[in-house]
Every structure is written in C-alpha cells, then in structure tokens.
Design brief:
single chain, about 140 residues, alpha/beta, 4 helices, about 25% helix
C-alpha cells in the first residue's frame, strides 16, 4: 500500500463525484478529512494527519439529490468492488488500496439495517452522533 496511490485514487473519486454533481451533498469524514482540511483555514498549525485505508463519506439527512447517480458504477470504473455484509444489502466498496463506506447519522431508536440512499444507489450504515458533522456551519471551513 502506497500513500501516493491512495491519494491518486481519492482525488479521482472526488473529481468524479464532483462531475456527477453529488460531492457537494457529501461530507468527507474520518482520518482522510484531516488531510484535506489542514490545507484550508479550518485547521491551522502542525496537526498530524494520520490516515487509514478507508475513506468515509457522510450523507447528511434529509437526503436531497436532484437526480439519481449510479455511484457503484463510478466506483467500479475506478477498480472498487462491493463487499456485501449479511442479508441487509449493506455494501462497502473495496479496492486493493482503499475501502470506501457511506455513513448516515442514526436518528431516533436507530436500526441495525442499512439506510437506502436512492439518489446514490447505495446503502449506508447509520452511526450515532454523526448529525453534528452535517450541521456545522460551512464558514468554519472556508
């Protein structure tokens, strides 16, 4: 696993999501967001940027997509393959260099079932307490 290959793959994912019109509806979370935010004014100073082999995208609620985008097809073009977990249909997308997952804020009682994101044609895992990430004021990151 080389970091330069991971960077290239992640940049290509971001470019393709942008071209498809869905990047502005997603929030990059997890260790990789520190890498990108350190170049903006959100994180000043010598913050370490450890990175894992997975990249996580948060899909804020409510889901608002103007059109349906076949995200699995975009990822397949980049060499990702879905790995399904159980009978629920939850898939993470595996590449020899990375793993990509979609997350949603878990609300209410929660559920062990994944949440269908029809606008992206994926299912996302609900995680408690992620709602604060999607409700942050964008002025902090400009």
């Amino acid at each position: 696993m080389t970091k330069s290959v991971q960077f290239e793959i992640i940049f290509e994912i971001l470019k393709r999501f942008q071209a498809a019109g869905v990047l502005d509806k997603l929030v990059l979370v997890g260790s990789w967001c520190l890498y990108f935010y350190r170049y903006g004014s959100a994180l000043l100073g010598g913050l370490p940027t450890p990175r894992t082999t997975d990249i996580d995208f948060l899909v804020p609620r409510p889901f608002r997509f103007e059109k349906v985008t076949d995200v699995p097809a975009i990822l397949e073009e980049l060499g990702f393959a879905p790995t399904f977990h159980g009978m629920s249909g939850l898939a993470v997308y595996d590449h020899p260099e990375l793993r990509l997952e979609f997350l949603v804020p878990e609300i209410g009682r929660g559920s062990s079932e994944p949440v269908a994101i029809r606008g992206l044609q994926v299912k996302a895992q609900g995680i408690r307490y992620l709602n604060f990430l999607s409700s942050c004021d964008n002025n902090y990151i400009s």
